[in-house]
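The following block was generated as part of the benchmark described in Methods. Ligand: BES.
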Amino acid sequence: MKIEFAEFALPASGALVVGVWEERALTPAARHVDEATGGAVARAVQAAARFHGKKNELLPLIGPPGLPLSRIVAAGLGKPEAVDARLLQDLGGALVAHLNGAGESDATIAIDVADTVKLGPADAAANLALGAELRAYRFDKYRTTEKPERKPSLARVTIATTKPGAARDAHRAHAAVAEAVAFTRDLVSEPANVIYPETLAEQAVALSRFGLAVEILDENRLKELGMGALLGVAQGSARPPRVVVMQHRGGPPDSPPVAFVGKGVTFDTGGISIKPAAGMGEMKWDMAGAGVVIGLMRLLAARNAKVNAVGIAGLVENMPSGTAQRPGDIVRSLSGQTIEVLNTDAEGRLVLADALAYCQDRFKPKLMVDLATLTGAVIVALGHEHAGLFANNDELAERLIAAGTAVGEKLWRLPLAEAYDRAIDSDAADVKNIAGDRAAGSIIGAQFLKRFVKDEVGWAHLDIAGVAWSKKDAPTVPKGATAFGVRLLDRFVADYCENA
Ligand code: BES
Ligand code: MN
Ligand code: ZN
């Protein structure tokens, strides 16, 4: 799908989208099109019982009179004061879905809100375009026999704006976001026979073309370093583990970096504590945290973010086998702490324990955010609406929540407390990887990670198990891999870390 920006002109074919405010008030472009159709737009808008011009309402007029168009779509905009970047992104996304569903190949979107709302005309157009691009994503490379009539039809979208040049510039900045999100969605969608630690690491290495410094720590290096917790998870698999270290240096040379750490379990069978068969295929996306970190680093480099940033991804496959780790095994982590592994399915925290310790030892980051599909329990607590947020620093938590709200990737903070920490004291080692009952499972996971974080480092943990994959379409997120976290952390960096 190609996106273009142009000054408004009545198109000679295809679909045309115009905006209608709440209480059925036509925007100037809608009035213009209404005149060209002998009043058909106003008549349709008045006659449609379920169309009031509220946001999320779309009213199609198929084969309108007086114009050679396949359809006109009246798009509800709601109240002018409520129009913002997010609303326009959602509208751009909803329109792509609608027009693809209708089989349209060429569309002009003439949403001329810019006189009315705070956003300038170029930004308004660029946000429509961003939403359109985010929704147009599709992971279809393996659908070799799909019928053409089931494929997305939309080939070209022209966004009408009074400032096409400025809109194109604004869009270029957004395009890097859409590309990084698509890249992460691809990584997360790929099956585990294609994306495993070595191949995921190769994907990260390929990003050096954006100017990132990318290092891969192989199994020997991980042994030398002493990452016994991560290696214990990996030892059951025929696929050797990797740790990816990515650096973007866009800030002052002596300024400590912000760090992002991702769980990259390329497939989680549970290991010897094996998972039930039903739904196990979902565990191909247990590397979503790593996918987000890698995509985020690509984005920071692509847009030349004025910050020093480090991305670390711990990559392993969790398999049962004759060489697999057993429940009850005790491993020595990079931090020196010993861990009693009482459930081999609580593996993400083992991988992160070593990745977090490595990150702090080597980079002395000013703050550290990890992302992990860590617990099923976070889905019990928050469903698929919010990711779980844990932090040892209130300001960091608030900033992450604000960034998430701005981009529509919502976080909900859950507590950390000494009393929960008692539940992972081990009789045999320094710490055990499960509490042994079902209480507060996501908090227990976070408390475990906290044992590997130095108190002086600002740290946040995002449990993205409920939001990394979606079973239903949303305006800017088609069902499937969401890349939740890429936009949030890019926004967090832009608003709070650059030039700071
Ligand atoms: N990867 C899973 C968590 C998960 C579950 C992610 C569902 C996405 C959807 C994680 O490794 C896991 O298995 N966690 C266990 C922890 C338990 C053994 C303490 C869980 O949630 O059951
Ligand atoms: Mn698991
Ligand atoms: Zn897992």
